Amino acid sequence: MAQKITFFNFNRWGEGKEYIGNQLRTAGFDVSFEEKPLGKDSLPADTNFDIAAIFMDSPVDAATIAALPNLKFIATLSTGFDHIDLAAAAARGIPVSSV
What we know:
Elements: E1 4-8, H1 15-26, E2 30-34, E3 51-54, H2 62-66, E4 73-76, H3 86-91, E5 96-98
Parallel strand pairs: 1-2, 1-3, 3-4, 4-5
């Protein structure tokens, strides 16, 4: 079963969205895009993804992490981690990376 990557608030990249999606699908990933940032007040209808790709506008706190049962990795597409609850991620064994 392919790992599922969901990108949040990725619409600002225009044509880059199609390119990234195609490259990851070719590599065997299931890819989806959400218009809104990720957060406890803006969870997507489908929370069964393995990887969350977010920007600084996604406040990933402990409640958000708890609401994502399959989450295995958080990639912030920006520098810094101050918008992510690193302790909550570590408690679940979820690695976090930044660019």
